[in-house]
Here is the input.
Amino acid sequence: MKRLLLCIALVIPARWVLAQEDSDLQALQLADQFSAQPAAPSNWRAFIEGSVGGAVLRSTDTFQAEQRASLDVRYDDTFAPGWRAVFSDRLDAYNPAQKPFETAINTIRESYLSWQAQTDLLFDLGRINERNGVALGYNPTDYFKNNAVRSAVSVDPNSLKENRQGSVMLRAQKLSDNGSVTLLYSPRLEQTPSYADFNPDLAATNSNNRWLLSYSPKFSNEFNPKLLIFKADQMPTQFGLNLTNLVNDAMVVYLEWSGGRQLSQLAQAEQLLAMPYQNDEAFRNRISTGLTYTTENKLSLTAELEYNGAGLDQQPWNAIAGSPLYGRYRYWLQDIQESPTKRTGFVYASWQDAGINHLDLSAMERVDLVDSSRLSWLEARYHLAHAEFALQWQRNSGSRFSEFGATAQTQIWALVGRFYF
Here is the structure.
């Protein structure tokens, strides 16, 4: 796709019906006969976004200015009975450029057709951003996240899940009073990655064949489980479970688990790099569990513990520090969105209308419990009718070869403006 064309404007004019009646009744009849039809919601949503700021570079302790311009487009329309079209795309241009990209980065988040064959049977075909998982900071059952993030505009987990490439797939969903069943197939389409600005990069999302079967039984409004079975080429079957329970009106507890036989992440990285590796295949668990508490004044607090059974403990993590494998291991993990170590703590807070109407505050702290490094992030965002303004700050701290202490920047600042069409 070489261009993005925006063509939006749906305005339904209001009608004024004024009856000419007896002058004594005219005022009452004007009140009765006036009817203003609300504007129909548009099938399009689009905005432009600009960011100015910079980062303190760890290697030189100097400040590097950074700018970004983005165009975000979404389209969702039921164009015929039982038929729906969805398109979602984002174009980001950075200065300086984000290597290995030369100038801009285009991300096709979704582009698919949906057919409701029956009231309880749906089919989707195209590029779909399939997201699974009930946890906030780390989702073991989000099996389609690997290589999906093409342009990371924020470390906020909500942004990372939203602004990523979908996978080409065929998805079927059966609904019933007892729950729902979803079956999808995502085929192998391409093997050679592309960093061209507007390339759909099918090799990133469709480099092998994948199947996913999920079942969501309906027990009650308070307790919601989901069972998943995932299979990919050259990988043993993985099993997943999502559980959420509404404790009371203010608190939700959740558990997300995925398990199956697989190599450790270090062995997988060595295998992909055609390096000698130890065949340490074993049944490995990934777990994310926590709770979310929401107060009456719209303050939401989440605390989460995360366990990655394929990651490294302290001794092997320290053993590869500074070696050529260390950098390659970290780079690969960024693509598949996994932690290099086994244990992580995560805290997230968001406050809507934080003392001032339309002002939202968000804060995040991620702590690697193996090497004690930290990622801290803050955002203040103010909403207007057709615009938003945000101030963001991020800090990466830790020892030289720790998860967050080895990042290229120690601090990042950004002032963001967003304007809706």
In short: Helices lie at 26-33, 157-162, 202-205, 265-272, 314-319, 324-336. The mean pLDDT is 90. Residues 43-420 form a domain with the Porin fold (CATH 2.40.160.100). The radius of gyration is 25 Å.
